[in-house]
Amino acid sequence: MYHKRSSGQGPPSTTPDARQVRSRSKLLLALLALLEREPFEAITIRSIAAEAGIGYATFFRHYSNKEALLDDLAANEIAELLGKAMPVFATHQARPACVALFEYVAERRTLWRALLAGGAAPILREQLIGQARRLAAEFGTVAQGATSPIDLRVTHATAATIEIIAWWLRQPEALPVEQIAAILDRLVIGPTMAEDA
């Protein structure tokens, strides 16, 4: 995955090979485009490679199967989602953070529906909890007077948030972003953040 210098001068480079970065990016974008048109189960590795404009064999230089590609896509999506919501949570402005979270999911509704219903939900949950724990520690959301361990609170809040997102995405007529954000705040975020008060 990383390009190594062959000149023997200095240590090997840790810079990713530009072609590999481009190929991975093309594969991620291809899966994203395909998920907009069809369910994950119907997508084949051949269709992903064709959409990406790369050879079938090239796919396997980067991923062992389409689920691994979906996992990578999920990790990127989680990082983006948390990047938008966590800084707002860190300022203890729960409602705007909930709105930011649901606006992001709404913009990418098809993808999130695929991530949560396409077999990636357990992986998504674990990745989301792990990243939320790291960000919570980074943003210093642990209060000394809290009666529940931060690890438990983050795990509970993240799992509940995923369930609310999944429920919202399954509705034939989705609630408006402001309304579902208020529900998340009232049921999950408010009580979780109240521990810090």
Give the gist of this structure.
The protein has 197 residues and is mainly alpha-helical. The chain has helices spanning 18-37, 45-52, 56-62, 66-90, 94-107, 109-117, 121-138, 150-170, 177-194.
Explain what you see.
The structure is a single chain. With 197 residues, this protein is mainly α. The protein has 2 domains: 18-63, Arc Repressor Mutant, subunit A, CATH 1.10.10; 67-194, Tetracycline Repressor, domain 2. 71% of the residues lie in helices and 0% in strands. The chain contains 9 helices and no strands. The radius of gyration is 19 Å and the shape is globular. The protein starts with 17 loop residues before the first helix and ends with a helix.
Domain count, please report it: 2
CATH topology of the largest domain: Tetracycline Repressor, domain 2
Order of helices and strands: HHHHHHHHH
CATH architecture of the largest domain, by name, is Orthogonal Bundle
What does the secondary structure layout of this molecule look like, with pairings?
Elements: H1 18-37, H2 45-52, H3 56-62, H4 66-90, H5 94-107, H6 109-117, H7 121-138, H8 150-170, H9 177-194
Helix pairs in contact: 1-2, 1-4, 4-5, 4-7, 5-9, 6-8, 7-8, 8-9
Essential attributes:
9 helices; Tetracycline Repressor, domain 2; Arc Repressor Mutant, subunit A; mainly alpha; disordered N terminus; 2 domains; single chain; 197 residues
